[in-house]
Amino acid sequence: MAELGTDFCQFKSPDPVTDPYLVNFSPEGASLLGLTPDCVNDPDFVQIFSGNQELPGSRPLAMAYSGHQFGSYNPRLGDGRGLLLTEIDAGHGSWDVYLKGCGPTRFSRGFDGRATLRSSIREYLAGEALHALGVPTTRALALIGIRDLIYRQRPELAAIVVRLSDSHIRFGSFEFFHYTNQPDKTTRLLDYTIEKQFSEFASLPDKYLLFFREVIKRTATMIALWQSVGFVHGVMNTDNMSITGATFDYGPFGFIDRFNPHFSPNSSDHNGRYAYGQQPEIGHWNLGKLGETLTHLIDPDDLESELKNYQPVYNQTLKELFGRKLGLQALDESFSDLVGRMFNLLSKSQADFTNFFRLLAEYPEGSWQDLNNYFDDKAALDEWLNLYKKLIDREGEDFADRNQAMNQVNPRFILRNHLLERAISKALQQSDFSEVERLRLLCLNPFDNAPGDWDETDIYFDDTPQSFVEWRLSCSA
């Protein structure tokens, strides 16, 4: 990104902090950068990734971008509290190393450029959770604590997330130059992006159209994956949409508890724009805004034609994902009818979305009877289960094989908000980060049970407590 120059970014060093300390470290993140797990023991590790010490060869920068937030264009965005520290290619593809919460930049709009420890724990763990669930996402190397207090509604502990991403170029990166009437810079950014992220198109005459087609495909696939695991992003502004189709910028996200397509975890989302059931439509809308920035390079009719492919890609991907979740391979009309009835059944029940599928894997020969506890209308459940059994019997797969296959795609553990709050509370009140590490380990293996020597393991797998069902957060939480 640095080679594009100051029209695209601000070169700036992180602001130093007082006595930084390690909250948590990800060996898996380190391996992406070609680092060994013992790198965290180097006394320079915390100093470099807190921004106190220069990383040799790096040239930190804050990127310019704008975006549509809740449907309205905001021209004054950009990296206001983070810096792209460096790019590293250790043979697994190139990774941006980004410090989120390392001080103000020219894009900070008067804010302090810091991030709360509370929100940083959430982002740090969320990327690892979605990665293990098979969802494209940013990753993390470490979470660094800062002893200096910052002020939101009250004094707060601060932190820096060392975020890893295949790219930090957003839909809003292109909008910044489009809405300031700089088509030459839009083209330059696009050429750079294609060369870096879509190099297979770089020498082709229709590379811009192929780029847009690929972004559509990746975005549709990502959102279908979100829907399949019940993930709700909460802030699907165009500045939070990565051009590589990776889940990006975790704020007030959540996983649906009881199935409610109207649920949004963002307390600012008063109209439910970013609710679970709206995510596919918003993905399409955001892609339309990206397409508008390319009209000087691609005929608008061709852009519109490409956008029409979004829904078929999304629909087919979602169908295949729910086929695997239900342990069924024949994705015909009978299957579609079963899925439609299932969502209708779930919306009228008290069923936990995640645990419903985990219990369903036990049907009909295992311990599935707890499903009954979710449904007041037992006749409706029995009717649906009879339809399901007909499709199971039609395929003739052995119960044990189907059970195993379903348990490999339906998680036992998801990163529920009450578990995050438990970890955050220990961190803030006791400086105890052990629960952050527990959640990190559970995130890595969401389809398995907890280690046998842990106490209180049921809390990680039980339904969400009533007081946290459909819990909502602000963007600063």
TrEMBL record:
Classification via InterPro entries: SelO
A molecular function (GO) term: ATP binding
Highest taxon of the lineage: Bacteria
Keywords: ATP-binding, Magnesium, Manganese, Metal-binding, Nucleotide-binding, Nucleotidyltransferase, Transferase
Binding site for ATP: G78, G80, R81, K100, D112, G113, R163, R170, D249
Pfam family, one: SelO
Tagged with keyword Transmembrane helix: no
Residues bound to Mg(2+): N240, D249
Cofactor(s) listed: Mg(2+); Mn(2+)
E.C. number: 2.7.7.-, 2.7.7.108
Enzyme active site: D239
Keyword Acetylation appears in the UniProt entry: no
Catalytic reaction(s) noted: L-histidyl-[protein] + UTP = N(tele)-(5'-uridylyl)-L-histidyl-[protein] + diphosphate; L-tyrosyl-[protein] + ATP = O-(5'-adenylyl)-L-tyrosyl-[protein] + diphosphate; L-seryl-[protein] + UTP = O-(5'-uridylyl)-L-seryl-[protein] + diphosphate; L-seryl-[protein] + ATP = 3-O-(5'-adenylyl)-L-seryl-[protein] + diphosphate
Xref: HAMAP family: SelO
Function as written in the Swiss-Prot or TrEMBL entry: Nucleotidyltransferase involved in the post-translational modification of proteins. It can catalyze the addition of adenosine monophosphate (AMP) or uridine monophosphate (UMP) to a protein, resulting in modifications known as AMPylation and UMPylation.
Family: Belongs to the SELO family.
NCBIfam families: PRK00029.1
Protein's recorded name: Protein nucleotidyltransferase YdiU
Organism from which the protein derives: Candidatus Nitrohelix vancouverensis
Gene expressing this chain: ydiU
